[in-house]
């Protein structure tokens, strides 16, 4: 038996189970996974008859021969009719025998019955991949010293592929460092092995088919036909599935190559195809996606192929399909890839660049592109269709650019309405909410309008509906209801008149407005102490939007559900959202995610991590100031005040005062009262000298929310239970499995002192044993998840 064979514990268990209860053990994995040597190691000492289907003389032996286990290698080469049926019959008629079958393909159909009845165990490629322990053991057996960081790097590069790890061990012997040059050498050896052992054994049409699909991470049959131009694409895919395991299913219609094999195919493609031919292939993939109106993938292909004219064309078309601010951030890299001359030739692209710059807070760049669009208009005649389009784009920017605020919109919208009436401009579509659950605080902050909401509802409703088109369906009624809601009024009656309009919104309006209405309903339900109803409102819409493919709304929906979880005390669900879905990007502000940033800060406050919350909130301040985001500013100041108070930092008073001053100016109540029990102690400790009547109304609303949700944003550890800095250090060492003696040595303290600290830590975490401390600490976010 080869000395450097690593048998994974999980594989050994499945082999032992097969020997005790099974009949067939089927290895299904690409070459280089060590199927043959692994099988030999597992079967060492057994009475084994070995055969290979690659041998022309291979024949199914009679059961009377002296063998206990039949091992057949390269089963994918066995003739289906002649050999496989005979093999199945032998398995059925010889219950006293065992069968080990090795194949680069999937189990043939005739063996399926054995798998369904539990008589056949299948070990696939993923079962044979090495993990960290396997890599460490292999290097120890090879006599190679390797550090933990090198093992991490080897796993990352090899993805646990046994052959790649084995070659790495050989190349590093006897003590060579793990360097980029060594990694390149290992990849080269693996690829040469693939070329000889697999690729050169395929006939030429299959090789060509594989190479022409290699540039694409996934594909379906239609794409395979279009890219390869092969009318037998379906047969090729069936053959690859049958005789290899290099192709995997994404779902029932889409496929992808095993990553290691795809890397090889791309390497082979570089050697066999010219750059021009590779770009032509990628452009065919772009055409496939374009015909499906999957512009994100089409743009990726055309950009890789260097086809700037197609990128420009698709960005214009995509802007028409996905209006508003949302799509520009998603398409940023494609806009940035275009030559400036290409952008200057298109009003749509200049509009897009102006909005894109605004969204990354490059307001100088935004105004520059706005100016270029103005110059374009000046060079066009009044009857020029391009000029008419450019004037419409300018009007769109006048209304939509975030840095422009809303103070001038009461004049801008009627003026644009007159231009539309006279057919002097044609406006692109808008997105009033920018995928947020709000109109008042969506694409723009309409706090200024809230001061005169009843008057503006009467005077601006008609021109707004004309200017906004589909986005105006239900907009005015929803906007005034939200304005009243923010001011603390009961909007139950208004919601009863809004909800019957939802069918009209779905049929003639936009999904943005559907989310805005549902978001307002959920917020009002939560404010009235009905969190179960609020959750159901959002979950139903979430399911509906998933079915309709409206994925751009889902992150904000998930954040809404997280806020409901925090209100109801489901802290584990809030932690799960934080781990899996929170942006967690303090160095890169995406203003389209501000609702998620505020939610993230709430979770961090709940986790008793005020410093983390302040780090999340601080990058939003310049955007809020430059774009007059009043509502976001109130939320940010309240959350900052709560975080500072948790740190015993007296600057909380200044922040809460700023929040109250802004809220009082606009008569907003809910913007502050939503924080209920979390903000109530701060209000009680602050001497605010503003409007007493408004403040009395605010306090009543805050107390109501505190009664409904008494534990909202309450830290998991009460102030008296917080760990001291020394205790926190010792907790990390406990979770690193250090003994008390080792902790005493590291901390340079006496052993009894460590024992006292450990006792206090266990008491504060409400656990009895050190082993339970790690789980409790992770739940409280006191240590990293990977510790």
UniProtKB/TrEMBL annotation:
Q: Which Pfam families match?
A: GerE (PF00196), TPR_MalT (PF17874), WHD_MalT (PF25873)
**Keywords, A to Z?**
DNA-binding, Transcription, Transcription regulation
List the GO biological process terms. Answer: regulation of DNA-templated transcription
Q: Which domain of life is it from?
A: Bacteria
Q: Boundaries of each HTH luxR-type domain copy?
A: 716-781
Q: Which SUPFAM superfamilies match?
A: C-terminal effector domain of the bipartite response regulators
Instruction: State the Gene Ontology terms under molecular function.
Output: DNA binding
Q: Which InterPro entries match?
A: P-loop_NTPase, Sig_transdc_resp-reg_C-effctor, TPR-like_helical_dom_sf, TPR_MalT, Tscrpt_reg_LuxR_C, WH-like_DNA-bd_sf, WHD_MalT
**UniProt keyword Nucleotide-binding present:** no
Task: Output this protein's name.
Answer: Helix-turn-helix transcriptional regulator
Lineage at the top is:
Bacteria, Bacillati, Bacillota, Clostridia, Lachnospirales
């Amino acid at each position: 038996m080869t000395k450097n064979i690593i048998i994974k514990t999980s594989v050994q268990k499945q082999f032992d189970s097969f020997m005790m209860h099974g009949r067939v053990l089927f290895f299904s994995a690409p070459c280089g996974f060590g199927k043959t040597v692994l099988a030999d190691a597992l079967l060492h000492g057994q009475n084994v008859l070995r055969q290979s289907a690659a041998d022309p003389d291979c024949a199914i032996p009679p059961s009377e021969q002296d063998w206990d286990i039949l091992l057949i290698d390269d089963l994918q080469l066995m003739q289906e009719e002649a050999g496989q049926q005979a093999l199945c019959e032998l398995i059925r008629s010889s219950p006293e025998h065992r069968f080990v079958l090795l194949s680069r393909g999937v189990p043939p159909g005739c063996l399926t019955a054995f798998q369904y009845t539990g008589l056949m165990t299948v070990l696939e490629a993923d079962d044979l991949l090495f993990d960290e322990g396997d890599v460490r053991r292999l290097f120890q057996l090879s006599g190679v010293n390797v550090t933990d960081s090198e093992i991490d790097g080897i796993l990352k590069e090899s993805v646990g592929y046994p052959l790649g790890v084995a070659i790495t061990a050989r190349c590093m012997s006897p003590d060579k460092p793990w360097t980029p040059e060594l990694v390149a050498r290992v990849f080269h050896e693996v690829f040469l092995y693939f070329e000889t052992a697999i690729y050169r054994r395929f006939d030429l049409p299959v090789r060509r088919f594989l190479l022409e699909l290699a540039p694409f991470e996934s594909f379906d049959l239609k794409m395979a036909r279009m890219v390869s131009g092969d009318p037998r694409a379906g047969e090729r895919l069936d053959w690859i599935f049958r005789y290899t395991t290099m192709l995997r299913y994404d779902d029932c219609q889409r496929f992808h190559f095993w990553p290691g094999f795809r890397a090889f195919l791309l390497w082979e493609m570089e050697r066999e195809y010219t750059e021009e031919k590779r770009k032509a292939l990628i452009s065919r993939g772009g055409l496939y996606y374009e015909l499906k109106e999957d512009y994100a993938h089409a743009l990726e292909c055309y950009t890789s192929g260097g086809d700037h004219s197609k990128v420009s064309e698709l960005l214009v078309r995509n802007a028409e399909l996905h209006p508003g601010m949302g799509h520009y951030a998603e398409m940023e890299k494609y806009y940035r890839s275009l030559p400036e001359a290409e952008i200057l030739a298109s009003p749509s692209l200049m509009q897009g660049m102006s909005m894109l710059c605004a969204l990354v807070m490059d307001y100088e760049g935004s105004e520059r592109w706005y100016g270029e669009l103005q110059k374009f208009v000046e060079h066009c005649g009044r009857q020029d269709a391009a000029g008419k389009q450019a004037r419409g784009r300018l009007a769109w920017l006048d209304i939509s650019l975030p840095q422009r605020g809303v103070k001038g919109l009461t004049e801008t919208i009627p003026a644009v309405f007159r231009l539309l009436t006279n057919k002097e401009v044609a406006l692109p579509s808008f997105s009033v909410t920018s995928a947020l659950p709000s109109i008042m605080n969506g694409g723009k902050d309409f706090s200024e309008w809230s001061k005169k909401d009843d008057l503006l509802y009467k005077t601006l409703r008609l021109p707004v509906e004309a200017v906004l088109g589909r986005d105006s369906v239900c907009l005015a009624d929803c906007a005034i209801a939200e304005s009243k809601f923010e001011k603390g009024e009961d909007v139950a009656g208004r919601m009863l008149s809004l909800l019957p309009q939802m069918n009209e919104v779905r049929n003639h309006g936009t999904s943005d407005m559907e989310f805005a209405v549902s978001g307002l309903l959920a917020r009002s339900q939560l404010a009235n102490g009905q969190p179960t109803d609020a959750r159901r409102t959002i979950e139903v819409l979430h399911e509906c939007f998933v079915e309709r493919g409206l994925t751009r709304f889902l992150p904000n929906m998930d954040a809404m559900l997280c806020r409901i979880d925090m209100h109801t005390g489901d802290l584990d669900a809030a932690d799960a959202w934080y781990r899996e879905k929170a942006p967690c990007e303090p160095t890169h502000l995406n203003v389209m995610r501000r609702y998620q940033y505020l939610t993230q800060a709430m979770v961090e406050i709940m986790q008793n991590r005020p410093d983390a919350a302040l780090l999340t909130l601080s990058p939003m301040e310049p955007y809020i100031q430059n774009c007059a985001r009043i509502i976001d500013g109130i939320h940010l100041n309240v959350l900052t005040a709560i975080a500072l108070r948790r740190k015993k930092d007296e600057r909380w008073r200044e922040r809460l005062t700023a929040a109250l001053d802004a809220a009082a100016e606009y008569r907003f109540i809910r913007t502050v009262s939503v924080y209920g029990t979390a903000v109530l102690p701060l209000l009680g400790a602050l001497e605010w000298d503003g409007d007493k009547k408004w403040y009395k109304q605010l306090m009543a609303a805050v107390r109501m929310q505190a009664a409904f949700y008494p534990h909202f944003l309450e830290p998991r550890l009460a102030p008296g239970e917080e760990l001291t800095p020394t205790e926190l250090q010792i907790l990390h060492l406990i979770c690193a499995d250090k003994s008390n003696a080792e902790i005493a040595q590291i901390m340079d303290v006496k052993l009894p002192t460590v024992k006292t600290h450990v006792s206090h830590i266990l008491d504060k975490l409400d656990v009895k044993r050190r082993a339970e401390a790690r789980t409790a600490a992770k739940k409280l976010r006191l240590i990293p998840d990977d510790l």
